């Protein structure tokens, strides 16, 4: 006898709730079919369901996301870095207290030794005909951030070596819920043949029909709920083994919308409006914004960053602010709408020659006009870099670009051999946006504060006084 087992999943929703009614509508239809046919199925989330760029998630610190997963009937989830490092220790510790599903993450632990009751390294489930499935979850080890929040994330390969022998011995099928990214998933598939399926996320990759490395099936469904994933496993009871593995990712564009989910989201939006409705400051005149100029509010925000981090100089990109502050009452909701990014302040140490390269790169059109997606940035383009403590003399090139001719730090010429403390957004410590910042040996991250917390302080202390 052959038995088909179904796994449905989402990954990297990032609080894009506009796609959730279609996702839930689809899952409910699939669940009805499976139950009518007497087939086993599980609903799974692979992390980064939470994203504090959305006002509902911001106001309720991810609790609404968990309630929505409960309502949809999810049975399993793992932890993404947006759950793990954008909430303070207490908020994450209690995030899943009311979860009706099992949170599985084998490489997360609390530095104080007190582990939340919802956290399990592995989980087992049994199909209607007795096939035992073992699930293990892993999340990306951003310990420069996790450690500051009181958590540690173990090396995923070492954790697998620790847990897989027992898991494979107890289960007929082994499934990895991976918020590690495509590169680690591929390496795990090469090194651990005991794993039958890797359901992936984190790097927002999309496998429409799954991919194989050796005998391991890899699958992932992109980002933001534009696709959802399905895994179909066929177990032969006579041979006692998997005889077929299939994976598909389907667009949610034409899925039916679930009315209850739509109504719940409207109620959450009203609640978030109330929670974020407290007035921070009342403006006598609007505060303008501009992605390619140095506005008053951006200048004051960068000054706050410099003072707050005790830096020699500070720099932030003007694209962080998405709109102007209108005259009248400014609420926390307004601040969140205008600066929604889950980005933390950061301090790096750079030699003068490295700082000069960073400043020169930040003046190029390639940098200021770059349409950035990811690294915590939730805006449109990077925009002009605004500085505090650094003064530049520039000249215009024939192609219209600006060339930095001279730099002064707090009134003194830049010393190429001196080490400077430079405050900026943690965005620039990732990737190759500003290589000298990303490669800096000394990095100090400030958590759990976001740049918008400094923006609120700036409005209260620097704008109100003018």
Write up what this structure looks like.
This protein is of the alpha/beta class. It folds into two domains: 2-271, 4-Layer Sandwich (Purple Acid Phosphatase, chain A, domain 2), CATH 3.60.21; 278-463, 5'-Nucleotidase, C-terminal domain (5'-nucleotidase,  domain 2, Alpha-Beta Complex). Helices cover 30% and strands 28% of the residues. It is built from 15 helices and 25 strands. It has helices spanning 20-36, 55-60, 63-72, 81-85, 89-93, 143-146, 156-170, 182-191, 259-275, 296-309, 332-338, 352-362, 365-368, 435-438, 451-463; strands at 2-10, 40-45, 76-77, 102-104, 108-110, 119-120, 122-126, 132-139, 151-153, 173-179, 197-200, 211-213, 216-219, 227-236, 241-251, 279-283, 313-317, 328-331, 345-351, 385-388, 390-396, 402-409, 412-413, 419-425, 443-445. The strands form six sheets. Strands 6-4-3-2-1-14-15 form a seven-stranded mixed β-sheet, with helices on one face. A hairpin with a 5-residue loop joins strand 21 (390-396) and strand 22. Helix 1 packs antiparallel against helix 9 (259-275) and helix 10 packs across helix 15. The longest helix has 17 residues, at 20-36. The protein starts with a strand and ends with a helix. The mean pLDDT is 95.
